[in-house]
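Ligand: adenosine-5'-triphosphate. Inputs:
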Amino acid sequence: MISIYQNKEKLKWIIVAIALLIGLFSLFYTNSLVQHLADREKKQINLFASALEFVVTSASDEELNFVFTEIIHTELSVPCIVTDDKGEPIHWRNIDVSPNLSAEEENKLLLNRIEKMKEVYEPIEMDLGPDFKQYIYYDNSEAILQLRYFSYMQITGIAILSVLAYFVFSSTRRAEQNRVWVGLAKETAHQLGTPISSLMAWIEFFKADENFDQTIIPELTKDLQRLEMITARFSSIGSEPSLVEENVLEAVENIVSYLQKRVSTKVKFSITPKIDHDMMAKINIPLFEWIIENICKNAVDAMSGVGKIDIYLRNSKDHRFLYIDISDTGKGIPKSKIKSIFQPGFTTKKRGWGLGLTLVKRIVENYHRGKIFVLKSEIDVGTTFRISIPKD
Ligand SMILES: Nc1ncnc2c1ncn2[C@@H]1O[C@H](COP(=O)(O)OP(=O)(O)OP(=O)(O)O)[C@@H](O)[C@H]1O
Ligand SMILES: [Mg+2]
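Predicted complex:
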């Protein structure tokens, strides 16, 4: 039973790891691609610079023609601005300059752009003769910028999609589980109805029969009451239960006196209310008893029939919640298991279904708008569960 949950937990982490790996790989791959392209563009712009230098300083007519057509006029995707030695722009390529701009505006735009380019790459100096220098400022091409953003967009995309998928899957699964629970509970309550009324009739019949051993009747009646209680619990689960302002202390005392008779005498129960606090809260008695019974049964199992179960009742500081702390002196719950114990099917017992705490959590949260959690647990010392129920 445990293994389903351990495997599911593992699977979740494997998927997270794979998503992370894909993301990192894509980031790494795009980055190396960007690096590669940037290197090529750098070479291209350097070639462009050398070509310009060559044209001005030493080319023959024939060479000039070659350099112009093959190098300077070729497809250069890198944005670049050539300036004189005072930093004034002379000509430029791949810069978006609107033809509607005045000469002054155009100059301002180019100078601005030069400032930005300086931050990315050092300009290339061209030696065009004695005291005649020009500079090429340049930047990464649009394609590289887009590629760089693309990898981050991709990672964000993967992350958003994973979170979305997680919520969609877990909420549909939860809704489905809910329907199964409620349906099963309703059906069980319904099915139990008929034999119970028949048993009632039988008890009346035996009461009237003088030959029947009448000392058995109270025992039979008690068992029947127990069956009725179980039916009441199931039918409360299957329908919207009514919450009524009740004295929780009394409810706890009732169920504990019932349990005390049914477990080993070596298990001692104690109930400690804070005397000055009122113990009222809105609960549904059959369901509330089910909560306490399940937790106490687990406690008894955890201490193999010998030990103490202490129940403390008190209000939260702001008096909005009633706390019911149930402590046992059992074997404790390992830290790594604390999250799993409320999941259906998780059990460490030979004959366990692993449903007790799932049901308890459901009753506390869904039907009483409360909370239940492990307040503390220590191996071989004991465990304390806290139930917190709104007082109104
Ligand atoms: N008080 C406790 N001390 C130690 N372990 C506990 C305690 N309460 C619960 N557990 C652990 O949590 C597991 C799940 O409890 P849960 O009540 O959901 O199922 P179960 O008791 O195993 O089976 P059942 O469906 O019959 O209740 C238990 O098997 C046990 O390992
Ligand atoms: Mg249990």
